[in-house]
Amino acid sequence: MASRFVANLILMGSTVVGRALVQAYRQALANAAKNGVAEEAVNNIRRGSSKIMTDVEARQILGVTERSSWEEILKRYDNLFEKNAKSGSFYLQSKVHRAKECLQTFHQTQA
After folding, report:
1. Is this prediction's pTM over 0.70?
2. Maximum separation of any 2 CA atoms in the chain, in Å
C-alpha cells in the first residue's frame, strides 16, 4: 500500500514538473520572438557557421571609420594589441588580431 502511494506521488510530481517545463519553454519561445532573438539566430545560421568577421565588425573592434587609412588602422591595432597583452585578455587580443586581418584583406582588395 505504501509503495502504491509513493509511486502515485512520484507520478504526480513528475507530471507537474513536466507541465511546468513545457510552459516555461513556450514562454521562452514567446519572449525570443518578441525580442528578435529568433530572427538573429536564423540570420546567423544563414550567414553560415564559419563565423567570418565582417569589415563593419572589424572597424567597430578597432574603433576606426571607413575613411581611416591603413596606417591609422595599424596604429589602433598596435595600441589595442599591446593593451590586451598587458592585461592578459587573450580573447580580446585575438579579436583585435582577427579584425586587423579582416581589414587587411579588405584593403588589399580595394587597392
Report:
1. no
2. 85
Q: How far apart are CA 62 and CA 91, in angstroms?
A: 14
Which letter, b or e, does each residue of 69-96 get, where b requires 16 or more Cβ atoms within 10 Å of its Cβ?
A: eeeebeebbeebbeebeeeeeeebbebb
Instruction: Please enumerate in sequence order all residues whose Cβ is within 8 A of that of 86, keeping only pairs 6 or more positions apart, or say none.
Output: none
Question: Measured between alpha carbons, how far apart are the two ends of the chain, in Å?
Answer: 85
**Cα 97 to chain center, whole Å?**
18
Average pLDDT of the chain, as a whole number: 83
pLDDT for the residue 58: 92
